[in-house]
Amino acid sequence: MALILKKKLKPAVKQVYESPTGQVFDGISMAKDMTMICLEGGIDALPSHNKQEGDSTDAVENILSTANNTSQQEAALCYVEHFKWSVFPLHWIDDNGCCSCNDNECKSQGKHPLVKWGNEATTDHDQITQWWSKWPKANIGIATGAKSGLVVLDVDVDSGGEASLNKLLDQYGPLPETIRVKTGSGGEHIYFKHPGGKVGNSASKVGAGLDIRGDGGYVVAPPSNHLKGNYQWK
Ligand SMILES: [Zn+2]
Asked: Who's near 7: CB < 8 A, 6+ residues apart?
C-alpha cells in the first residue's frame, strides 16, 4: 500500500519537493511540510521585502530590533511598510494579568482576534492606525500564507517541539538561516518564504509540538504580550 501510494504521488512530490540544489525528497509524510518550508530562507524568506540597494540582513535586523522596542501600532505599521505582511489586532493581556476579553476562562489569552481577521487582515495604513487608536494595547496578529507570502514553523516547547525539531534536523540537515521570534511561552516561530501552491495549517503533524502556520493561519508577532513574557525577534 505504501509503495503504491508513493509511486502514485511521486511526480507531485518531485515537483514540489525538489530543492534549489536538486535534492529530491521522496519521503511523503514528514518531508512534505518540512521540505516545503526549507526551500528558501535567509533574507529571501521575506518575499515582499522591497530590497533597496544596500539593503542587507543588517537592514532587516535593524527593522526587527526597532519592532521589538516600539508600540504595537508602530510595530504593525513597520511590518506592513517593510515586508507587506497583512496584520490585524488581537486581544492582549491586561495589567491585571487577564485577557482583555474579560473571560476568566479564556482559552486563548491574548491571542484571539478582535476583528474578523480572515477578511480584514490588511496592509492599509489608515485601517491599522484606526484599530490601534481604538485598542492601543492590542497584540499583533500576522496573517500567514500566500496573503503575506509567509509560512511559519511554530515550535511549542511545552509540547516537545524542540526535541521533535532536533530529530528532524539530525535527519534532514539544518534549516536555512532566517528570522525567528521567541514566543511569549519561550518557544520559537521560524519564518519562511511561502513556496507557492497551497500550504495548509497543521498541529503536531510534522512532529509533536511542531505546528505549521500557512494559508488561512496566523501568528502572534512582537512586541505582543503574553502571560509569561513578550514576543521578541531574536
Ligand atoms: Zn480572551
From this structure: none
Rounded distance between C-alpha atoms, residue 148 and residue 215, angstroms: 9
Type of residue numbered 228 = K
Angle between helices 125-134 and 72-83 (to 10 degrees): 170
- Boundaries of every domain in the chain: 1-39, 40-233
Can you list the positions of beta strands (E) in 65-179? 87-90, 139-143, 150-155
Distance 83 CA to ligand 1 centre (A): 28
Report the alpha-carbon distance of residue 140 to residue 142 in Å, rounded: 7
Distance 107 CA to ligand 1 centre (A): 7
Give the rounded distance of the alpha carbon of 151 from its chain centre.
Answer: 6
Ligand 1 centroid to 42 CA: how many Å? 34
CA of 118 from ligand 1 middle (Å) equals 18
Q: Is 106 exposed, middle or buried (0-12, 13-18, 19+ CB in 10 A)?
A: middle
Residue ranges in the chain assigned as alpha helix (H): 2-17, 29-38, 57-68, 72-83, 117-120, 125-134, 161-172
What's the gap in Å between 114 CA and the centre of ligand 1? Answer: 10
pLDDT of residue 188: 95
201-228: pLDDT as tens digits: 888 877 889 888 888 999 999 999 998 8
What is the Å distance from ligand 1's center to 198 Cα?
Answer: 30
